[in-house]
Structure formats: C-alpha cells, structure tokens
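W.,

You were right to be curious about this one. When I first looked at the sequence I had no strong expectations either way, so I just let the prediction run and decided to look at it fresh. Below is the sequence, 391 residues in total, followed by the output.
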Amino acid sequence: MKIAIITETFLPSTDGVVTRLKEAIKFLRKENNEVIVIAPDLGVKEYEGAIVEGVKTTRLPFYRSKEFSMPQRKVKELLTKHEPDIVHVVNPAFVGASGVYYANKLNLPLLASYHTHVPKYMDYYRLYPLKPAVWWYFRKLHNFSDLNLCTSKAIQKELTDKNFPNVHVWDRGVDIEKYHPEYKNEDMRHRLTGGKPGNKLFVFVGRLAAEKEIHKLKPLLEQRSDISLALVGDGPVRKQLEETFAGTNTVFTGFLHGEELSQAFASGDAFIFPSVTETLGLVILEAMASGLPVIAAKSGPTMEQVVDEQTGLLYENENTDSLLEAISKLENEELYKQLCENARAEAEKFSWQKPSEQILDFYYQTLKEYQKNQVNIAKKSKMKVTEQNKT
C-alpha cells in the first residue's frame, strides 16, 4: 500500500504526535508499505525509508517558538506526484486542511486523526468566544474523512457528542527499553534538583505552553521547601514561567533528548501532570515506564491511564489542598514502593506493536469505508437523475 501522511508536526520536533508517527512509520515500512510524509520543511528528507516532502513554513505571531505550514497548493502537487492509495491527515488544522481538501478533490480515501484538543485551548488564550467556531472548523474537516481516529475513549465520546463521524480510538504505546528505571542517574538528579538531591524531585516533561497549566504548581513549591520541580521542555511561555517560579526550587532544562531524557524521567521521585487539556498524554506512559508514579489533575484521558493509589495519585484540578494531600501520600514508603512497581508493570503492557498494527488495520478499514461511500454517492446521484427525468 502507498500511504501519504500529512502532518502539522514531524521531525526534528519531538512531541507525542511525532513519537506515535515514528513508531507507525517504522512498522509500516517493515511491512513493505510505501510511505510519503508531507510535513513542515525543517530539513528532514527521509525517515526509516519513508520519503519526507517538506512544505514551506512560517511562524505565527502568537506562537513564535514553533514553525507551522499554512494551507498551500503544493499539497495537491505532492499528492498528484505520488498517487497514494490512502491519505492520512494527522491533526488537520493548517497544512492538514489542504490535505483534507485536496484528498477529496482528487477522490482519495481519507483518514484523519485528532490529537490536539485545540477547542479546549481557547480557554487558555483568552479566545473562548471563538470556541464554537473552532469546534465547527474541526468538525467540518473531520466530516470529509471516511474514518476518524482519536487517542482516548474520553475524547472519542466528546467528539461523537460533537457530531464527528465514525470515530475510533488509536491505542497508546511506549518504548519500555528507552524509558526504564535503570536510567536513574545521580548526576542528573543533582542537576534537576538545582543541587538539592535530598529534596523530593517532581518532573514535568512537555511543551511549556499556557494550556499545560504549569503555573498552578507554584503554590506547592511555596508551601513545601523540601520539593524541587524540574521542567523539561520549552515553549511559548517559558520566559513567563521563569518569572513566575523565580525564587522557588525550580529548574528549567530546555529540551532533553536520548539518554538525557531517559535519565531525567528515571531520576525523579514522581512525574507531575497538571494539564486537563490532553487528548492522551504519552509522557504519562513514558514516566510510568521509567518507574515513576504519576501525580495528575483529574481529567478523562488522564484517568484512563492513571489509577489512583495504584499507578499514581490523582487530585482535583485547581485545588492546591487536594494536590498537597495527594503528595503527602508519598511519605508512606510502602505505598510509594508499590506505586513505582505498579507503574512500571502497567507500562510494560503497552508496547508500540499493537497500535502500529492497529493503524494498518485502520487503513484497510478506511479503504472499505471509502468504497462504501462511493457506492452510496453513486446511488444518490442515480436517484437524483431519475427524479430529474420524472419532472
């Protein structure tokens, strides 16, 4: 099968979407499928035998830390050039909107996957009046698809309630070799605690953006001087967060990759996750694979991964007392040891093999849906002609 994947983000960027795509591409190539990736042009031309076709990028005035590709006709040229059997648009928003439009214009089978909860983000950028329009926009894009995917049951229900058609869950996975407790490193712990390795070390890994709600952790550090926070990553609100957390036991590392990232996870005492806007949060599973219990604000997708007092500790969003109560349970050494063991054991159930096999099954299912839709279109067209002839 020849597959065109059109994505808003790809290498060298590092996030959950890119991680998922890398694993899928490796599997698809292993199964002798031809893969073409159409993505923002950031210098990558090939990955695991897949051709990467870069398209022109720009920086948005409200999000200067990342390059995006806007809708453009080059997408049509690339689809015409490669003649794929199926088009998979990942997170259609900007260049992905071109993917949806031209796949339909060229009458190609289309699958779209929903990974970023952009309508929810409107609440964090003071754009909440636009929320209904944003929902309309994404629903319209996904309505063109023969089949739609998302990454959790909670989001599947929300999208279905919003009248997104034919929505299925693309399961999660994790590299249990790359993320492992054996990467614990005393030098890394000294670095992440700002020279206070005796403190309890909470690690956050991800984009430093408003919707991650990292600022809500400041009261915790103000009340507990024995806690250090390591923020691993970068993003549009880093400078603002550095000002917010000035004078607290907080270390900003910027992006970490490879073994350093593995060490950062494994060298903490717990992973802390204050965001309630995630469609899944693969970093949760990466932390669990590293043997860390997860301290997380309650949200549907997060609660699909973290079981309170079994693999982590859940607290009420925007409730400092609830957060402090959850953290106090870590003082129970027996419970803490069990949380660490359970977290690792749970992560071991989720290799990338199943979701990678699953995406190939979804591609074949999309082809069947496409054929069915073509038959229905032909029937409707025939009925219309018949009605016109009668009149």
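Here's what jumped out at me. The chain has two domains: 2-173+354-390, 181-347. And, maybe more interesting for your project: The first helix runs from residue 16 to 30.

Coffee later to discuss?

I.
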